[in-house]
Amino acid sequence: MQRYRLQSELQTKVEELQLTLDGALSAQLEHELVRATQRAAEVVRPFEAFVEATHASQCEREAKLAASREQLDELDRELQSLARAQDGPAGDGEAPFGTA
Q1: Where are the domains of the chain?
Q2: Reported pTM
Q3: Radius of gyration of the chain, Cα coordinates, nearest whole angstrom
Q4: Each residue's pLDDT tens digit, 58-70
């Protein structure tokens, strides 16, 4: 009878120890995961700032390029208009500035 009681107590203590160990391991793993996530965010932060600055700069360049293209298109339209006006109604059939 005492042997059965001792085995039961041992089994209960082993189960308690197992639960305590599982809880401690889970808490430690969670803590390590939080720390690793924080370290990763700290490592990435400078690169994130660089990418954001580069993106903003690229957007500015694209806007300037679009404006320049629009100005170039406008100049091209003016040039074509002047060329047509210079050719007059008779038109000599020759394109201005060697463009055909």
Answers
A1: 2-84
A2: 0.49
A3: 40
A4: 999 999 999 999 9
- Cβ atoms < 10 Å from Cβ of 41: 10
User: And the tokens for 31?
Assistant: 């803590």
DSSP string, 32-99: HHHHHHHHHHHHHHHHHHHHHHHHHHHHHHHHHHHHHHHHHHHHHHHHHHHHHHHHTTT--SPPGGG-
With beta carbons less than 8 A apart as the criterion, state whether 81 and 94 touch.
Answer: no
Count Cα neighbours of 30 within 13 Å in the Cβ-side half-sphere: 6
| Residue 69 structure tokens | 């293209």
What are 10-44's pLDDT values in tens digits? 999 999 999 999 999 999 999 999 999 999 999 99
For residue 86, what are the contacts with CB-CB under 8 A and spacing of at least 6? 96
